[in-house]
Design brief:
428 residues; Aspartate Aminotransferase, domain 1; Aspartate Aminotransferase, domain 2; binds pyridoxal-5'-phosphate
Amino acid sequence: MCSETPAFEPAFLCVQCANTPTKCALTERRNPVFNSLQTASADAILGLIAEYRDDSRAEKIDLGVGVYRTSEGKTPVLGVVKRAEQMLIDGQDSKAYIGTAGAADFNAAMQALIFGDSSPDDRLTTIQTPGGSGSLRVAAGMILRATPNASVWVSEPTWANHVPLLGGAGVNLKPYPYYDTENHVIRVDEMLAGLATAPEGDIVLLHACCHNPSGLDLSETELRAVTDVIVERKLVPFVDMAYQGFADDLDRDAFAVRHLAANVAEMIVSSSCSKNFGLYRDRVGTLSILSADSKTRDIVNSQVNNLVRTIYSVPPDHGAAVVSLILNDPELRRDWINELTEMRERLQSMRRLLNDALIEKTPNRDFSHLVRATGMFCFLGISAAEVARLKKDYGVYMVDSSRINVAGITRQNVDYLATSIAATVESE
Ligand SMILES: Cc1ncc(COP(=O)(O)O)c(C=O)c1O
């Protein structure tokens, strides 16, 4: 047994005990840094995916996963993306670095898509980011640079990664009331009252549309009321737009962004092309920051690019180049909007199908919030114990909160799904 500082050479055997590093008794003491770590808690969704995969029941249904699916259960590459990718491969002549801000043509097209024709260009800066998550992470860094003591107010509940992502970056977080889990409505009055207590300069994170996890969005009237509080309290809106085109259409889904941009001096907008272009793994998104004047915009622009350099240096190119081709070519753009419309309409019709089937199979329970919600997600509105029974007895998988991804519903499985839900909630 060795007692001195071990040295592993030659052939990486300990010169004292002749053991390999893993067998040498001193290895543990040689690695004090990583040995201090504990296993990180597993991501709930990843655990659910593994359980679903290992379930041998043919009738099993996955309502947990966070991606769009067709009626065949596939998450396909959009046809228009395939065509744009081919054009890209044929025409691309360099893989040299792009700058920290990404491609100017992509940024301009995305800025127009998000902010519309009346985009306040002289006060806005938009950069390309690695997905919506990358955008949120850079936004957190900018908040810490500009106003480290401010809090970001997040809806209760919010997307499962908002708190770990923003909080993990070092930003202070505070909750504001949003979803009433009993009655399946937005707690608008409590939300307004909560935000009215926020100190000047705090930041309010809003979901542009298809609120994840509840699927319920503020009406235009409610959004105007929230804007009034934001303006009155001198707060800074921070809009996360991960589902543009999944609720109503590209323009109406951008109402929150555009209304706020027209009424506030400063704001932050994170967008993602993961869902609406189906480019999940290619990591495409943007971060836009609206400043009070063009001089500040230039300073913000220099800071955000400097910050990116210290995190991932430059964003990935491929997916953004594809999006740019699509948005800047009228024919490709039209075809994209058609495919996007198809995805949106499938989600809406699956919501209606499930609600209709539940009305028939469990008339005493009200699931009408399913059709009031938009986008991929909403709460089914059952207890964690019922979620567990659905999984055990029927092979129906969803996260404990009963948030479901309606893209997992098909015409083939909806009857079995509704029967399983009815049997589970009625066996109480
Ligand atoms: C509300 C919300 N914001 C941001 C994201 C991040 O998307 P991305 O995959 O582009 O990082 C998601 C993804 O599910 C989301 O639901």
